[in-house]
Specification:
Distance between the termini: 36 Å
CATH topology of the largest domain: Arc Repressor Mutant, subunit A
Shape: elongated
Number of helices: 5
Structural class: mainly alpha
Largest sheet: none
Order of helices and strands: HHHHH
Number of domains: 2
Number of strands: 0
CATH architecture of the largest domain: Orthogonal Bundle
CATH class of the largest domain: Mainly Alpha
Length: about 100
């Protein structure tokens, strides 16, 4: 049986796509205060999102060192070669490639 939150702890959590304003608030808050306890960061920044949502948004999309762009022809050839050898076993690809988001 799932645990139900107390009425006093119920908080409206925003779901769905992030807005540009939320992205900017998250970037500025992390620039000023650094990464840390994500639940505290979500509350301190004034989000109505979970700490895990903030963490994933930062790590997968907003962090400056996240590689972006298309894969190179060499990477595409390597993926096709690995697929020919091992099929859809993604773990083998992950061990051999640096994936781009």
């Amino acid at each position: 049986m799932a645990k139900q939150p107390c009425k006093s702890q119920e908080v409206e959590v925003r779901k769905g796509p992030w807005t540009m304003e939320e992205d900017l608030i998250l970037i500025n808050h992390i620039a000023n205060h650094g990464e840390g306890v994500w639940n505290s960061l979500a509350k301190a920044a004034g989000f109505k999102r979970t700490g895990n949502s903030c963490r994933l948004r930062w790590l997968n999309y907003l962090r400056p060192d996240v590689p972006r762009g298309n894969i190179t022809p060499e990477e595409q050839f390597l993926i096709m070669d690995l697929h020919a050898k091992w099929g859809n076993m993604l773990t083998f690809y992950i061990l051999r490639l640096v994936l781009q988001t």
